[in-house]
Amino acid sequence: MTTPTTPAADLPAPTDLPGPTAPNTRALRVLALCGFLLLAGCLVLTAVLGLVDAVEGDGVGGGLLTAGLWSLALGAAAGTAALAVPRRALVAAQYALAFAAPVLAALD
C-alpha cells in the first residue's frame, strides 16, 4: 500500500525561499561593481593619509597603514568573489574593508 503525497511535501522549505526584500544576483553584482569605485576612492584617501603622516611624522609608515593597504587588497578580493558568486556577505565585506582602510591609516 502506498501513501499518498500531499502537495505541501513538494514545495520547498520556507528557509529555502528568498525573502521579499532579498536582492537578486544582478543587484548584488551592481553593488559589487560600485564597491570597486569605493575601493579606488578609499585607496586615494589612504595614500593621502599615509603621505601626510610621512611628511609630518617620523617619515615611515606604521603597521596600521600597512593594515589599511591590506584591507583594500582583501576588499578587492571580496569584490571579485562577489562578482563571481553574488552573496550579500561578500558585498558587505567588500564595503566594510573599503571603509576600514582610511580609518586604519588615520589611526597610524
Q: What is the beta-strand fraction?
A: under 5%
Q: What best-fitting shape do the alpha-carbon axes yield?
A: elongated
Share of helical residues: 55-70%
The class by helix and strand makeup works out as mainly alpha
Tally of individual helices: 3
Low-confidence stretches: none
The averaged pLDDT comes out at: 86
Provide the succession of SSEs: HHH
Query: How many E strands?
Result: 0
Distance linking N and C termini:
75 Å
| Main sheet record | none
Radius of gyration: 22 Å
Which characteristics define this entry?
mainly alpha; 108 residues
Report what the structure shows.
It is a single chain. The protein is an all-alpha fold. Helix content is 69%, strand content 0%. The chain contains three helices and no strands. The protein has helices at residues 25-56, 63-84, 88-107. Helix 2 (63-84) packs antiparallel against helix 3 (88-107). The radius of gyration is 22 Å and the shape is elongated. The mean pLDDT is 86.
How are the secondary structure elements laid out?
Elements (H helix, E strand, L loop, with lengths): L24 H32 L6 H22 L3 H20 L1
Helix pairs in contact: 1-2, 1-3, 2-3
How would you concisely characterize the structure shown here?
The chain is mainly α and 108 residues long. Helix content is 69%, strand content 0%. It starts with 24 loop residues before the first helix and ends with a helix.
